[in-house]
């Protein structure tokens, strides 16, 4: 979600135009798929650790795999990961077929595999964000939240590289929508006294919150650009998979 300084020039099917709770205009890249496929792979590695006699807590598995991704090549070594469990209008997909695809000369390592999985989470988002770039929208800073940002310095760094913009994560980043609704509910009392939502957030909710900002690494930016070009071309494989692997047929 990007708060806009001016209206968009044209309508884009990749973007929803909404507002913040305070009424500021927002362009939203609405992705249907997120980190669910990534979590499935982490669950697979977690099970491997268990059957190997070295069980690990889920957070420890996420931490180990995410940090391994930092050792991967900037373009994920030629690997592609598609996280589409459902259709994705931005990518022109009516259904989802999660895929891992590579060429014979790609470098299949755990580090590259995990980097491709993390890049895959941001693939569709990046396609939508590039529409904003074509509109001339310059993003000053993005704020990221969600469970995948609990491992400090990994998903945040890759997102900064994917968007080519600074990404800030707060200590409340793992909180979800229910927390946000609770914040808005708590604001109602302040609103009765004439305090604006912006002031309430700045002066009370986030006044003592720690903010960590990561600048885009030029190597990551270049690597993700290469990955995304390959990702965009490979969407043709996704479309063929949807056609060839019918969900109706698989239930017979």
Structure description:
The structure is a single chain. With 252 residues, the protein is mainly α. It has one domain (34-171, 210-250): Nucleotidyltransferase, domain 5, CATH 3.30.420.40. It has 8 helices and 8 strands, in the order βββααββαβαβααβαα. A 3-stranded antiparallel beta sheet has the order 1-3-2, covered by helices on one side. Strands 6-7-8 form a 3-stranded mixed beta sheet, with helices on one face. α3 crosses α7 (218-244). The model has no long low-confidence stretch (mean pLDDT 92).
Computed over alpha carbons, the radius of gyration is: 20 Å
According to DSSP, the number of beta strands is 8
**Oligomeric organization of the protein chains:** single chain
What is the total domain count? 1
Task: Give a short account of the largest sheet.
Answer: 3 strands, antiparallel
Can you name the CATH architecture? 2-Layer Sandwich
Biggest sheet: strand arrangement? 1-3-2
């Amino acid at each position: 979600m990007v708060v806009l300084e001016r209206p968009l020039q044209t309508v884009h099917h990749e973007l929803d135009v909404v507002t913040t709770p305070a009424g500021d205009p927002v362009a939203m890249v609405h992705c249907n798929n997120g980190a669910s496929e990534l979590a499935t792979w982490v669950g697979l590695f977690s099970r491997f650790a268990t059957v190997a006699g070295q069980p690990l807590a889920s957070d420890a598995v996420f931490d180990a795999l995410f940090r391994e991704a930092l050792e991967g090549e900037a373009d994920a070594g030629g690997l592609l990961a598609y996280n589409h469990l459902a259709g994705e209008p931005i990518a022109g997909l009516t259904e989802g077929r999660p895929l891992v695809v590579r060429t014979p000369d790609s470098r299949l390592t755990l580090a590259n595999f995990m980097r491709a999985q993390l890049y895959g989470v941001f693939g569709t988002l990046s396609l939508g964000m590039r529409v904003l770039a074509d509109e001339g929208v310059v993003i000053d800073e993005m704020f990221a939240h969600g469970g995948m940002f609990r491992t400090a310095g990994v998903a945040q760094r890759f997102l900064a590289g994917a968007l080519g913009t600074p990404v800030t994560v707060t200590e409340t980043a793992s909180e979800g929508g229910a927390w946000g609704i609770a914040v808005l509910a708590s604001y109602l009392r302040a609103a009765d006294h004439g305090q604006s939502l912006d002031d309430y957030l700045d002066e009370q909710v986030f006044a003592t919150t720690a903010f960590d900002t990561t600048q885009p690494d030029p190597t990551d930016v270049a690597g993700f650009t290469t990955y995304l070009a390959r990702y965009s071309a490979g969407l043709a494989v996704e479309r063929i998979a949807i056609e060839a692997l019918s969900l109706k047929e698989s239930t017979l």
